[in-house]
Design a protein that fits this description.
Largest sheet: none
Strand content: under 5%
Helix content: over 70%
Number of strands: 0
Oligomer: single chain
Radius of gyration: 27 Å
Number of domains: 2
Distance between the termini: 25 Å
Structural class: mainly alpha
Length: 371
């Protein structure tokens, strides 16, 4: 079994570039399958329901792109036009202030050399991106993925229920009820997590974009979108957006009034994210206490780095399902109930199991049955 797992992991690692569009399509199919199932419950055929959901979501994505792409383009153009001001502020204000406050040797920072190196790196990145964009292979691969993702998404969505049923039929009958139960619980938890996290990202992007624009930051919408997108990683969106907004405020206005307003915007945003959005839309839906959420993120980052931070809450939600199941099995075991316990104790355990809330595994325990 271990050899099979290692072989599958190695195969996935080798085929990662090829599997990318299929993974994205599978994620989209997983997220949109509940909508198709809901239409089926109203008597719509599977193919028609999938077609309706697919077309509506494609139109929504296209409308969002038509709305966001011009906005992002204008924001980037604004940033490029004001870039010399940012460079001048860094050279004439920020670096001398750091030298004075940290008591550094003025020669420690050769501002002209640093700026030249920065421009050189920017130019190198631009040339690499230009080469990639002009590469025939790169363009073909990009266009192939762009066309392949919706095609695979449609077919996976159409056959999603049949694929799930096939996997269920292939499970060993002795463990099928347990695995099916855990899969249903994990599906509910992960679905709640993904939907909740997307709502948090959207809410924060709108809040930061609108609030920074109202306080007079010209690139506020761009900073808000970046902060909202990066909020998938706890604290990363806040730190990135806060630093960018502070620099933009100092360069654009250079006074304490706008600086304090930016600080207020992000202070309110952090409180909104930490005490309202994440606990209600993410943490509570996956059944994790806020302290457990923080621990999961820190542990994931310590064990697996950036990838661990990204996968911390989804992994924690699945682990939570497994721990609940193990705790339930433990409470039904002889180790917990004491072997040879009175009939009243066994009967009480039996009734508790059958009358439990949704999510409890309906395991029957008799006098001498093992749990």
């Amino acid at each position: 079994m271990l050899a099979i797992i290692v072989a599958i992991g190695l195969l996935v690692w080798l085929l990662a570039p090829v599997l990318m569009p299929f993974a994205v399509a599978a994620m989209l199919a997983y997220l949109s399958d509940p909508l198709a199932d809901r239409l089926e419950r109203f008597g719509v055929g599977r193919t028609l329901a999938v077609s309706i959901v697919f077309v509506v979501l494609i139109l929504v994505i296209a409308a969002a792109l038509l709305l966001l792409v011009p906005l992002i383009a204008r924001q980037i153009e604004n940033l490029v036009q004001n870039f010399p001001r940012y460079v001048e502020w860094g050279r004439d204000t920020a670096l001398p202030w750091l030298q004075a406050k940290l008591h550094l040797d003025p020669k420690a920072f050769d501002t002209d050399r640093l700026i030249d190196q920065f421009k050189e790196h920017i130019g190198s990145i631009g040339s690499v991106l230009g080469t990639l964009s002009r590469s025939g292979v790169g363009v073909v691969a990009w266009l192939t993925n762009l066309v392949l993702i919706p095609v695979v998404w449609f077919y996976l969505l159409r056959d999603w229920d049949r694929l799930v049923a096939w996997v269920d039929r292939m499970l060993p009958r002795s463990i099928q009820p347990t695995i099916a139960h855990l899969a249903r619980e994990s599906d509910a938890v992960l679905g709640a997590f993904v939907r909740g996290q997307l709502l948090v990202m959207l809410a924060l992007a709108i809040y930061y974009g609108v609030a920074l624009t109202l306080v007079g930051i010209s690139v506020g919408p761009l900073i808000g979108m970046v902060a909202g997108l990066l909020s998938f990683v706890p604290y990363l969106g806040f730190i990135t957006g806060f630093v960018a907004a502070i620099i933009a405020s100092l360069v654009q206005h250079g006074d304490w009034t706008h600086l304090l307003m930016v600080v207020g915007v992000f202070a309110i945003g952090q409180l909104l994210e930490g005490y309202v959005l994440v606990p209600r839309l993410v943490g509570e839906k996956i059944g994790l206490h806020p302290v457990a959420v923080i621990f999961a993120v820190l542990a994931g980052g310590y064990l697996f780095g950036f990838l661990g931070v990204l996968l911390a809450l989804p992994a924690a939600s699945v682990i939570l399902v497994l721990l609940r199941y193990l705790a339930q099995r433990y409470k039904l075991s002889d180790l917990y109930t004491e072997k040879g316990a009175p009939d009243s104790v066994i009967a009480e355990v039996d009734v508790t199991v059958h009358e439990s809330q949704d999510g409890e595994l309906p395991v029957h325990v008799g006098h001498n049955d093992q749990p």
